Amino acid sequence: MALRDSWIEKRLSGEWQVAGGEQSGTTPSTHGNGTQASNGRNMSQMHFARQGAITEEMHYVAKREKLEPELVRSEVARGRMIIPANVHHGNLEPMAIGIASKCKINANIGNSATSSNIDEELKKLHHAVHYGADTVMDLSTGGNIPEIRKAIIDASPVPVGTVPVYEAISRVRRPEDLTFSLMLEVIEEQAEQGVDYMTIHAGVMREHVPFVRKRITGIVSRGGSLMAHWMEHHKKQNFLYENFDEICKVFKKHDVSFSLGDGLRPGCIADASDEAQFAELKVLGELTKKAWEHDVQVMIEGPGHIPMDKIKEQVDLEMEWCHEAPFYTLGPLVIDIAPGYDHITSAIGAAMIGWYGASMLCYVTPKEHLGLPNPDDVKQGVIAYKIAAHAADLARHRPGARDRDDALSYARFLFDWNKQFELSLDPETARAMHDENLPDDFYKEAKFCSMCGPKFCSMSITQMAEAESGQDQAERKQKFAELLVKVQGAGG
Ligand code: SF4
User: 46 with 79: CB under 8 angstroms?
Assistant: First the structure.
């Protein structure tokens, strides 16, 4: 039995409690499970939160985030936090995306028409989750897309996101053959399969398209370019915008969250913060309110390529125009001249935007702009983004965020090399680098490493200086031991 089966069953049978625990919910009783779903009822976390109920998912998130359950409920009700948790994704371990919770990272996986298969995608999923991705997006555009997605959802303890237009395009001959009914069919199928959040490019309007002619790189979002092509071909408005309520009706039934796509995000530094980008962002704010009228959870996608001096403005405008819905950004890359190293160019921007208030950072791998990432590229991207998100958590003083840094620093000063490796974001790499010059077990307690050698190790010399004045390391050892309990208790 999956973790959430009994929770969902309870809500379906009407046994849910409002905050304070006195009054129970009034959902009419039906028999069934998540798979049989909600018969059209609103199953979204936001819907329950707005009626005062603290769901099991909210309790689970509160524990993970070291927050009060009531705070989680009120943030979800307000729309400032989302818990992407489709009722059909039973083995999901619920997590939250929002300003009050820790900064999250997403890893994109999925095949293309030219590369990859199910085993390779599951390997990427494993790498992504193992190294700490909080969500994954299956961006498959080739092969048997539903089969790959099912395998990913079944194997994933983290929320799975998709971009439904990719599958819709695979079902037609040309982009202009797309119709809203086909899109809705795909959206509904994916919702029934258990997709937790979907990127919907409903904010790209026909009147925005001329703005991109001034750009160097035009439209770099696949979804954005497809919608622009469709609108120009048919001389009609975006059908996702015009039928947005229909999508909300599907989303609330299965509790799918919107990731409102930034189809006009800038694709190079020269195009950053332009008219096209901001025109779309304003429409995303309008759509956020519409989704909230249905109690559907929303996050807003953001750029892209932005120089460091324009990053804060991005967050400020998103918060103002999109009513503080969680901001989910791709990077941003802060320079354009380092293909092969864009996990670094973008992690710099990601750390900054996370610090200013973005809630989730979509990773960029070293392969960005060059090819489909392999499992090792996925690892490099995830680690770069764990660093960025953690830097943001420290700068925002999130509860308990610094404990692991302090524990690792004690391990470092006390020359507990094994603990230092264990507490690292990538223990295998840290150990392998130490072993390169000093492989013997003896050196795992040595009071130096190969960087400065035994005579010049400043931390060892500090300990000697302290010993000269009669101090030992007992206090540091005690604090280290206490922190280890805290960090290990919190899952390391
Ligand atoms: S030798 Fe240098 S780098 Fe190595 S532990 Fe000592 S101070 Fe740090």
Answer: yes
- Residue 105, φ and ψ in degrees, nearest 5: -130, 145
Q: Are 137 and 235 in contact, with CB atoms under 8 Å apart? A: no
From 217, 209, 198, select the one nearest 328 (Cα to Cα).
198
- For residue 257, give the H/E element and its range: strand 257-260
pLDDT exceeds cutoff 80 at 21: no
- Distant-in-sequence, close-in-space partners of 171: CB < 8 Å, separation ≥ 6: 182, 186
Burial grade of 123 (CB within 10 A; 0-12, 13-18, 19 or more) = middle
Query: Closest ligand 1 atom to the C-alpha of 454?
Result: 1
Whether 459 lines ligand 1, by a CB cut-off of 6 Å, is yes
Ligand 1 pocket: which of 412, 436, 448 to mutate (most atoms within 8 A of CB): 448
What token pair was written down for 152? Answer: 């990913």
What are 331-361's pLDDT values in tens digits? 999 999 999 999 999 999 999 999 999 999 9
pTM across the whole model: 0.93
Whole-angstrom distance, CA of residue 222 vs CA of residue 175: 11
Q: Which protein residue has the closest C-alpha to ligand 1 atom 7?
A: 457
Q: Residue 110's pLDDT is what?
A: 87
CA–centroid distance, residue 400 to ligand 1 (Å): 27
3-state secondary structure of 18: strand
